[in-house]
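User: I'm writing a tutorial on reading structure tokens. Could you give me a worked example: one chain, its sequence, then its tokens, then a sentence or two explaining what the tokens reveal?
Assistant: Sure. Here is the example chain.
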Amino acid sequence: MSVYLSTIVVILMVGYFFSVHERKTGEAQRLRFIVIASVLLALQSGLRNVAVGDDTFAYYNLFETVRFFRWSWIWEDVGNYYFRGLGKDPGYEVVEKLIQYLLPNYQLFLLLIAGIFFTALGHFIYRNTELLSDAVLAYVLYSCLFFLFFSITGQRQTLATAAALYGFEFIKSRKWYFFFPLILVASSIHRSVLIFLPFYFLASFRRTGLYMATMLLLFPLLMLYRQELSTAITEFGHYQEYSFYHEKTGTYTFTAMLLILAIVALWRMKAVVAQHEYVRRFYNAFVIAIFLTPLTWVNPSNMRAVQYYSIFLLVLVPPVVNSLEVESRGLRRLAYVVSILVLVILLVRSNIHAEYKFFWQKMALGPMY
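And here are its predicted structure tokens:
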């Protein structure tokens, strides 16, 4: 846990340094900060020991196994996926096989995946924030809420999410001829990304306040029928194994945090949208995250579906905090500091036993191995 906290401290220090420089010179420092923060997190992700996280070692075994796959086998899997609806994530085999020609070492492969993802994340944050403080808060949000999922546990969904983040720019520009092929190709790496397809039509929904208020009112009903909802959505994505109750069900902290943020965001929505009309898209993504959250009470693995939309919190929370400046600059600063403290507390409380070692350090594999 100390490594995770140390990274957050460094991000805050870099952000403070650039904010001072920005005030003195008047030169925008947001892009420089984003580059440094992205590189820092990419190194933390890519240099991890194979024993870090639940799945890193399993992905290592898959990486070594794919070395012996023939291209004819892989293309057959791809054909079965697209034309017969059979198989699971053959595109990831293609990615591994191609990269092995240049980077035969698994550690280098981890670094490349981290580089791809944080390039996409940095681009996403840069295109959807305006202030240096927005970017700093976005990276703290990612480090506390998403890093252990996207950058430690997963690899297939990490790549699929990178595609979705780039795809959001095609949603904004209404370039469906780029968006849909991108998501369909990414679905061969992790099929869960198909849940992002409807956002092309929902992102520009105009009556956002009604949309969010209705979803909050319906949330108890969604929780009551969460099993039926889970079955319908997981069958759409061909992940029926996630439609049945898991013994460790109940995402209490995540659900409570999401609902509290939704209430605060709804309260400040008029002021936020008045300042930045484009933030409406982030609100719409957040509403879909609320809609999908009951699935995590059936099986925690359904968090895979929620994360494609909850990641928009990175660019929604900063303008919500900034809207408080209309009331008082001191109130905005207080909200900014309190948000960071609460995020760090949530990280420590939820992942107090999360261990991190670099690849050159010794670390025992988890009990599942």
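What the tokens reveal: Residues 289 and 309 are 5 Å apart (CA to CA). The chain has a mean pLDDT of 88.
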